[in-house]
Design brief:
Strand content: 15-25%
Helix content: 40-55%
Strand order of the largest sheet: 1-2-5-4-3-6-7
Distance between the termini: 55 Å
Number of strands: 11
Largest sheet: 7 strands, mixed
Radius of gyration: 24 Å
Protein name: Protein FAR1-RELATED SEQUENCE 5-like
InterPro entries: MULE_transposase_dom
Number of helices: 12
Length: about 325
């Protein structure tokens, strides 16, 4: 069940990556050896991913769990979102260890490949080594780090509305204190251990509670679900018996398939124009400049406006009036 570094496997892989670089100077790869001269870590970014990062590198998800249970070298990847709302790969690595030192090496190598341009926002799971490495290699304010909500919420026995339903940090903190008091988490003997865990999460609330990160652009992501979709995609190309020297060529084959999907979406946008849902000037303008996938999101908002009605008005000045409105779905704003 584990990938075995047979004689020549590592050398064959590096030779293949060298050949890719020779064929295309924008193909980037880097590796390092252990003290015994054996392959320790290797990372690579193909030319298409490097080009895509310049346009879609604002938000990046990083994951290092794929194949962990089947291989000695986990397949780590950097993932983003393109203008068709498609998941795109922005770099890969096979790592010998999942510690801070290894992640620092990887992040610095990846940033060097991308011309030193750090992402504005990066999402990971709660791995402490990743967090430490991001602070070292991509410190704030250049990169805002966020934990995946899904990984955290799986550890709660129930849905805590206080985590989501807040308009300000102050409102969240009040709601959190009320929830602790209501369920007696800080005094009940049976929940003391859980309370300690919650205290740690509370201290780190600025990197996972939505109200603390909602002002930052996240490309519609709250979880690393897009990484999971990439992992599922690679299942069609990588098997439990895939040897190291076979890894890179199968990766390239997989990436060509992803490129074909993007080309198909480009063609679809040229051939097909989605009809308007109303006579909004903004909607008509977006129809001309947005891809179909993004235009659908605009239309959702335009449709909601049809259900909005004024409930009162607030005089801002002699000539300006602000009407608080109520959406047909419920809340005033």
């Amino acid at each position: 069940m584990r990938l075995r570094l047979r004689d020549g496997d590592a050398a064959a892989m590096i030779n293949y990556l060298d050949k890719m670089t020779k064929d295309n100077q924008n193909f980037f790869h880097l590796h390092r050896l252990d003290k015994g001269g054996k392959l320790q870590d290797v990372m690579w970014v193909d030319a298409r991913s490097r080009a895509a990062y310049q346009y879609f590198g604002d938000v990046v998800c990083f994951d290092s769990t794929y194949l962990t249970n089947k291989y000695e070298l986990p397949f780590s990847n950097f993932v983003g979102v393109n203008h068709h709302e498609q998941t795109i790969l922005l770099g890969c690595a096979l790592l010998s260890h999942e510690n801070a030192e290894t992640f620092v090496w990887l992040f610095r190598a990846w940033l060097s490949c991308m011309g030193g341009k750090a992402p504005a926002a990066m999402m990971t799971d709660q791995d402490a080594a990743m967090r430490k490495a991001i602070r070292i290699a991509m410190p704030m304010p250049h990169t805002r780090h966020r934990w995946c909500m899904w990984h955290i919420m799986q550890k709660f026995s129930g849905n805590l509305n206080v985590i989501y339903n807040n308009l300000s940090p102050e409102e969240f903190e009040e709601g959190w204190a009320e929830a602790i008091k209501k369920y007696k988490l800080d005094t009940n003997k049976d929940t003391k251990q859980s309370y300690k865990w919650l205290q740690v999460l509370y201290k780190q609330r600025d990197i996972w509670i939505p109200v603390y990160v909602k002002h930052i652009f996240w490309a519609g992501m709250q979880t690393t679900q897009r990484v999971e979709s990439i992992n599922s995609f690679f299942d069609g190309y990588l098997k439990k018996n895939t040897r190291l020297y076979q890894f890179a060529p199968r990766y390239c084959k997989a990436m060509e398939s992803r490129a074909n999907d993007e080309r198909a979406a480009d063609v679809n946008c040229i051939r097909f124009t989605r009809p308007l849902v109303g006579e909004f000037a903004y909607e008509r303008k977006c129809q001309k400049v947005y891809t179909d996938a993004k235009f659908v999101e605009v239309q959702v908002q335009c449709t909601r406006v049809c259900y909005v009605t004024p409930v009162s008005k607030k005089d801002i000045s002699d000539v300006e009036v602000e009407p608080p409105i109520e959406c047909g779905y419920g809340r005033s704003f």
